[in-house]
Design goal:
Strands 1, 2, 3, 4 and 5 form a five-stranded mixed beta sheet that branches. It is built from three helices and five strands, in the order αβαβαβββ. It has a domain at about 60-160: OmpA-like domain (60s Ribosomal Protein L30, Chain: A), CATH 3.30.1330. The protein is an alpha/beta fold.
Length: about 160
Amino acid sequence: MSDQDDDSNVGLRVVAIIVIAVVAAVVGFAVSLAGKPTTDAAVVEVVEVIEVPEPVGEALARIYFAVGSAEPGADLADAVARAQAALSATPDAIVLLSGFHDPSGDAAQNAELAKARALAVRDALVAAGVAEAGIKLRKPEVTAADGPPEEARRVELRVQ
């Protein structure tokens, strides 16, 4: 029995030495990384979170766009005039713009196009004298796939 006990003790010692060596290597590696200055400067991006209200009621105007285009159609001038009239009646109101796209194709590309369309409407409003600070843009929204195709290529304008 004494030979078996000696063999067990040797085996346990070998395992203990291996475990200690691994732990020492990991600790040594961690200490060496902690002591090194990083060469890359930390980049911190500050993102301003702006509360955008939910749309209320029916849209004051809908501006439609051609397929794949962010150029507003002829209905833009009427939409801008309607927004100006609503704002003159309620000067402290905001203009809320919602761009839409359909679920077909590349979702990210569609969302960017919907955003570009909303920005085009915003730019037209600002050019007409509407204060940019009073215009809020909602995140692009997806329309149902079963509706008319032009409904997916619109920007809704609300004054609320």
